[in-house]
Protein: ARAID factor
Amino acid sequence: DLTENPLTAVPRASFRGFTHLQSLAVPPALECPGGSDAWQDVTVDRSSRLCQGQRNPCNSSEQLAWPCPENSVCAPDGPGLVQCLCGGPFHGYRCLREGTFPMLLFGGILGTATVSLSLLLWGTQRRKAKSP
Structure:
């Protein structure tokens, strides 16, 4: 129930991840998060706007406003929000890379860079340390 909050607008991503939200009351001047199409029933009275029954935008018969890439599946991510999850062996930006994520290569490069930078900083700052 957000009716007593002095909200002037609800940021679009405020309810990201709220996939099981089924009832929400907002001040009557505000729209329901995701718009009226994201809810099965929107009721307005004097003190509140009641949004009930969050719809799954992935199961919509209308054309999706958020097309997922070919190698991904649609998953709801809150009122009127979706996320595209890479399927099968695909990963990366827009699920265009096939295979597994190169964890060993990534970890090796990150570890080498971290150790090198640490040794460089230790070597340059060691002479500034006070001796007992």
Remarks:
- Residues 101-129 form one domain.
